[in-house]
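May I ask you to review the protein record following this short note?
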Amino acid sequence: MKFREIFRFEFHYQLRSVSTWIYLGIAFLFPLFFSAIGESSDDAVFLNAPSSLIFITVFASVIWLLSAGAIAGHAAARDVQTRMHPLMYTVPVRKIEYLGGRFLAAFLLNALIQLAIPLAFFLSFHIRTVDAAQLGPFRAEAFLTTYFYLSLPLAFIVTACQFSFSVLNRNAIVAYVGSLLLFPIIFPLIGTMVAKFAGNWELVKLIDPVGFSIIGSVDTWTAFEKNTRLLRLEGMFLWNRVLWLSLALGILSYTYLRFSFVHTAAGNWWSRFKRKPSVEAPVARATRRNTPLTITPAFSVATHVRQTFAIAGYSFGAIVKSKAGLVVVGLLTLQMIVFAHEYLEFRGVPQYPNLMNLLGMLTASLRDFQTPLIIIPILINYYAGELVWREREAGLDKISHTMPVSEWSLFLGNFLGLALIMGVWLGFLLLAGVIIPMTMNYPTVEVGVLLKVLFGIQLTNYLLFALLALVVHVLVNQKYLGHLVMLLVYLAMVFAAKIGIEHNLLLYASDPGWSYTDMRGFGPYLAPWLWFKLYWAAWAMLFAVAARLFWVRSMSEKLWMRLRLTRQRFTRATALTAVAAGGFVLISGGYIFYNTNVLNEYSTAAERTEKIAQYELKYGKYKHTPQPLLTGTKLQVEIYPEDRSAEIRGAYTLINKSTLPIDTIHLATANGVKTGAVKFDRAFTSIAEDQQLGHSIYKLSKPLEPGDSLRLSFAVAYHAQGFPHKGIVVSVIENGTYFINYNWLPAVGYQAMRELRDNGERKKYGLGPWAVPSLYDAANTKRIMPGQELIHLEAVVGTAAGQVAIGPGALLGTWKAGGRNYFHYATSAPIRNNYSFFSANYATQEATWKNPESGQAVAIRLYYHPAHGEHIDRMVKSVKDSFAYYTRKYGSYPYSHITLIERSGYAGELNAEPTTVDYGESFTFSNQKDNPWALDLVYFPIAHEIAHQWWGAAQLLPAHVEGGIVVSETLANYTSLQVVEETYGKEHARKLLSMWRKSYEVPRSRAATPLLQATDAFIGYRKGPLALHALSEYIGKERVNNALRQLLTKYGSGKPPFATSLDLYRELKVVTPDSLQYLLHDYFEKNVYWQLKAVQSEAQQLDSSTWQVTLQVDARKVVVDSTGAEVAVPMHDWVEVGVFAASEKELGKPLYLQKHRIRSGVQTITVKVKKKPSRADIDPNYLLIDLNLENNTRKVKLEGVAEEGFDLI
């Protein structure tokens, strides 16, 4: 009876609370908001698909966690917070009734709030106009399964944890902090780390209680599955629910056992243990003063300053005494130090803990919610609420409100207290930045830059956020609602672009971003960053004025009373402060606006999309208009790093290679530069010069006849003016200039590469679906795309004294003039119209490779940042080994030189162009010497880029059709694998293959187009080379190499028709025996997966030197199409079967390794070996695409031999 009464009272009490309805409203509005702004990235997926409901539910649950903490925390600790517990604990009620009734009420309320999420999702498509074609049928079971499998269990788990936290700590706020840290941050983070280290991504599904891992699984579904498949309580998700529900019940049971109806002081055994014996204080003798005590009030500025610092010290001390923030940030720091090797590794290879890598670990944008450092903004919000509410919750507000302390001192004191604790937290991170390099034996620790970044840039962001948090809590004047409002403000900052707020002048605490690299330092980022921070600091001062005016110090906290007090508090000093802050907002905001919107062009994402669409709508009709072909380029390039400017004067030689006269020239110009002085060597008139869309049309007075040439001259100027609102351009900087020709120089003809590719957006503008041209469209194999033209190029490049300028071609000469350095480059043979220019304070190393057969000498030149020279010898070796292998197997290198250049910037990806390879700074950070057995991630990428001088960049160029990535990236990856194997051996090549296969371990959809028609990078870079490797193991490497050489012979001239994956396939078919043609078909024409399982393995010793091994296998082969439809097909394939001796390595010594015909279903294979077997495998070298490699192997059970740890009797 009492249980029901307590439950009913608690339920109705919280139901009558305005806060509960606000929480319900927010839970309802969040799905409406995301349904309105969210659009499926796949046109085939309905907006109301079950997968969309799952996505919305998971992310809305993160918002719900705050309201859940308020409800559960109030239910658990309200009696203690209101000091009613001495009375309540005397009531004759049992623990099960007291705790159970309150918990059940909180759980039911949270379950009802969670119910608002699917309801809002359903209504979101009925209260706004939605294209009926984007909606699927209503399926009630989708809502039921999502709610009962995902939302309701989560409500129970979270409420149980939050309720227990608050009961045991007798503090409601613990529910808020504990759940928000644990559920959306720490548990998923731990799950991801465990899965990464264990190599089993299924573990994430077990550890993650919220459902983020479910979204990862949904991403692997096909469009058909996303539209139809329901959330199922099966597999690891079932065990997840069992585990977490069991833990929740266990936590509730522990809470029940630990709770008792006693006062905190009496019930806390640790407090009793710490209590010192009381000592009777001596009685003080009364003394008589002859003169009265004189007190002189002082309200000077010095007094206010002392009061402010006193409050700051008290606030700081209160935060420190709470320990939670120090412990959480301390654990985060400890985690960074302990797992530094895991943080600083790439593909299993350790990275140096240099400054750039450390900054990537220790810093994050305030709006980056996918980082462990998100904990700091959460703690700031928490402590802001604690500081604003501490006197009121302690019951001291009636006294503190009467103290002669100004509201400014109260507000600023609390703010400074927050600032001090943030300084301590950042001190922890600084400590990690010092310790990590020491533990990894790295010689250099740049403490000065770390101090600038952590206590200059990072602290500034946190200070602005902390001030806003204090202001929100003061204005809202309801603790939990304040936390929730602040979370919504933070989410608005994160997702501002989704609601159309993109300019950093409108987004609190935003800035254009900053970057630090070894080559360019902070570059041009700091000045714009500082202006934006000054602007937002002025806004923060205005917010502080509002907080001072609304600071609660009266007996009544009603809004009308607070508004009346604001008139009294709006003194002249306050007005002057507001005017000064407002004036600086206008001044700094005006200066920023002048830079971002006047000196630079500002446009929203929607405007940029419209601009791209307009280009195609207006000029797409000229897509197939015959244009002359570029055959020669001559450039005079002047780079001014100190001014961040450049000037280019150039001349193109154009030849009409069509069969028709050409009287109109279309010229595409680039954004961000000024193109002018366009002239032809014959009379012409300008028909259109569309600077907005970058397209000009010129009419020749005399048509260009077939075979005739035309000279086009132009001038291009770039000058960095001011700064944009984001995305600061670093093409020309003080050290590390880098720009690409097609980003600056004019191009002839309509540029199809500028077309809008998002089919959803294309539909809005009336454009048809965009797709890569069909593999079977022969016309496209003859079409020359921009960048594919073969040209002779000559360039003279000038740069600042002390710098080296690099361009395409061989270096013919250098000289100095006018205090500047000049470099003359020219190509010895035609190159693609795809090249770059560089300028920096480079160190240089030169080498030469000589072809032993032809005697051809190739000059190797490397330009690199002086501090990044450790791997230069390894890079030179890779270049030489690559040239040796590729020329021997595929033919000669057509140029006399190759240049490798380091470019400024954190990104470490490499890029190949004819005669050049450039790479980002972080490419040089691999620490190969501390892990010499790991994959050489310096040697292999260089070999891959050198391979592009044969495949994809210089000689064999793919046609612009489906499968083009196979002709370029697949061939480059496969042939560089051969270089690795030839240099390092099979074991090292196995590591590279293993890295490629591990990409399949990350959850991804099996639905895909066949390899022949691949357009996806994963297929080209991973499946393609694996397929060629498997084929080489079946038919032999030389046969595959012969096919590639034939392909290069036929299509390597650089002239149309260009090579396609179908051409490659034809050459492979020629060298593949009839008995293995099915393998080509399975790998290239179909999207096939094998499911191979070693069921059991036994061995019997026949004599002293012979063992008979029996392996039972289960085999299945399936074909998956692009929609995800899966069909099992009969299997009768050649598959490797291996028996191996014991070894600590991945594979021991092979005792038997032969191919067997394996059919569908279960079968038994019997072989004989000469030594004692340890392991038997089906497809031990993983030549077939099998998504579950764990079950391919079995430990051999030896007959008559005891299992380890047991004795046979």
